[in-house]
Predict the structure of Magnesium/cobalt transport protein CorA.
Amino acid sequence: MAALPSTVIEFDLSDHSFRPLRLDELVISRQEKNKIYWVHCDLNDKDTFRQLSVRLQLPEDVIQLCEEDELLPKLNDSDESLTMRIQCLLPCEPHRIHHDVDFGNVVIHLTQHYCFTAASHPIPALSSFMHNYPKAVKYAKTPCFILFLMLDNAINDYSEMLLEFDLVTDQIDLRIRETHKNIYDEVIDIKKQVMKIKRYAAAIRDILMRISGRKITVVSERCRASLANLFDHSQVIISEADAIRDILNSSLDQIDNALMQNMSNTMKVLTAFAAIFLPLSLIAGIYGMNFEWMPELHWKYGYFWALSLMVVCGVGLLLLFKKMKWF
């Protein structure tokens, strides 16, 4: 799946209309307050990125964030702009829950006239925005509505993935009673992925807390209230991740207990067999000594006596352990 191509959309807030623009048509006028823009750049296209950097006069810190590949959240704000780098889920095929969950960086640069986004991977949150902005534009007042929709899509993707993990966790709880060779590794793997989602969701929560908790020029009061609701949603997601982690920890404890029980049963069987053969070895050892005066050595039925004694001891111990339910 290819990354979302570079896109420019012009929104007219006076009549809540929109229209796509070519890159060479992009001219941002500071005087026309009714017109705002969404500018998205596919970072795999270096030439387009350089052109947009010049046209939008992107600050150096924004360009640096776009050029870095490390999966680390970041937030920079000034009097005229707000810049962040968040981690969004990459496309995942249905029922691929047992594979690693992958993330990609999305850089968002918000000003009073436009919202610039950039990514080098196919990001479902961006694709969802492409489908939803025609309906959402009628509620738009500032470019902040683009930021809100982007963060909302990212958080919803986290929520949907955690729901899948929740379903898998319930299935694992039922499978623990059966014998599955890789069930322990499977639980550990899912737990790692849940914690990865929690870590990135917590990063978005912290960004939302900083944005919604104080006045920023490019964030309107109405948008700040919406971002506060997103903050609450992110808190719910983190709590859900913690709940799934606790269930998985409980599953690991059950698996450990089952393994210890199986090991205990195995040791019982081995101990029983060792106890059965111990008196047999003792009898064989006694009559194997090379002393001259041993009455049974010259007895006509000495051999059969020794074998009979071994059989009686072995069968007696076997019946005893059967009664004790060691077998």
